[in-house]
Structure to design on (347 residues):
């Protein structure tokens, strides 16, 4: 295995000596601050990403709501959406006060609302705009600026489009590139279909690492297990899991050991329950609802006896008026945790 590159600002933030990074992907409507807090209680080392936040929203909207987070969420990256270098520059300046560890530019999201704003995956068609945006962000950022892209869109030839984009953004100082190893079809496929239908091409990502050996390159797309992640680490520096973690968060329980080399320990689900109950109580006291927190916890015990009842309690009772942290306790009580961690992790 070749030497792992390292995103500069994350050096020394983990116990991983070879520079590998396991990340939880930015997912619109999913990886909000409550989701990230929950994930952080299971893995202390995984790099977490915010949902994509549009630069215009940061400039004109409720900044604390959009950018605020718990200090425990670090290491934490902010993903920005936009295509106007001036607006992205202002968003980076504003975000500085929130002390993110990385700023990432979205060049991969295929949703309709992103396309209407001429950013996300459609930026693959204008790599010069991406380079100008990264250059502007780098000029003011005090943390690494990275790019998350697809291998191409529509009729583009990935063998030309991907290295062209990479060369342009690296020339202006991009610190790392995360690659979703599928094309995005902006015409004819829905965002959901774009996550599954375009075929995966991991080999092209591996070739990009060979072409740019000193650059941190991470891979994303269709990775379901830590075994698969470990396999990818033979070729790239970072692995990003999305839906697999959201739908079965117990996968994170072995990340610190298997990826970052920490001593193996049993997952402490009782501590997790108590921590999330206390967090939910604080959120409700500030005017929030239990559902805001509990909805991210539904997939935790996939594969264990009682998991169905656990899901039912969190999905229904947490949304009722006046629901409190006791709903989380009731949900955990429905699961037979004596069946062991391994079943949940291998589901």
């Amino acid at each position: 295995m070749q030497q792992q590159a390292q995103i500069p600002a994350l050096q020394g933030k983990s116990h991983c000596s070879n520079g590998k990074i396991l990340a939880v992907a930015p997912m619109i409507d999913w990886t909000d601050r409550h989701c990230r807090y929950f994930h952080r209680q299971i893995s202390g080392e995984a790099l977490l990403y915010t949902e994509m936040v549009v630069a215009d929203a940061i400039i004109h909207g409720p900044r604390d709501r959009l950018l605020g987070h718990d200090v425990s969420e670090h290491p934490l990256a902010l993903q920005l959406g936009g295509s106007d270098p001036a607006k992205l520059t202002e968003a980076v300046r504003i975000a500085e006060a929130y002390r993110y560890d990385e700023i990432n530019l979205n060049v991969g999201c295929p949703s309709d609302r992103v396309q209407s704003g001429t950013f996300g995956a459609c930026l693959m068609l204008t790599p010069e705009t991406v380079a100008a945006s990264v250059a502007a962000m780098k000029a003011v950022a005090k943390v690494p600026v990275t790019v998350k892209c697809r291998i191409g869109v529509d009729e583009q030839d990935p063998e030309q489009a991907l290295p062209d984009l990479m060369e342009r953004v690296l020339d202006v100082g991009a610190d790392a590139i995360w690659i979703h190893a599928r094309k995005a079809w902006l015409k004819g496929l829905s965002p959901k279909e774009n996550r599954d239908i375009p075929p995966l091409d991991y080999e092209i990502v591996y070739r990009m690492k060979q072409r740019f050996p000193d650059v941190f390159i991470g891979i994303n797309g269709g990775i379901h297990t830590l075994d698969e992640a470990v396999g990818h680490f033979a070729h790239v520096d970072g692995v990003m899991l999305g839906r697999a973690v959201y739908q079965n968060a117990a996968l994170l329980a072995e990340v610190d050991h298997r990826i970052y080399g920490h001593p193996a320990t049993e997952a402490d689900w009782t501590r997790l329950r108590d921590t999330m109950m206390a967090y939910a109580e604080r959120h409700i006291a500030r005017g929030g609802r239990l559902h805001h927190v509990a909805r991210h916890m539904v997939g935790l015990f996939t594969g264990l006896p009682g998991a169905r009842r656990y899901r039912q309690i969190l999905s229904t009772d947490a949304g009722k008026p006046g629901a409190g942290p006791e709903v989380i306790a009731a949900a955990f009580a429905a699961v037979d945790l004596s069946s062991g961690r391994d079943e949940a992790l291998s589901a």
Observations:
- The chain has a mean pLDDT of 91.
- The radius of gyration is 20 Å.
- The domain at 269-346 is CATH 1.20.120.1460 (Four Helix Bundle (Hemerythrin (Met), subunit A)).
- The chain has two domains: 8-258, 269-346.
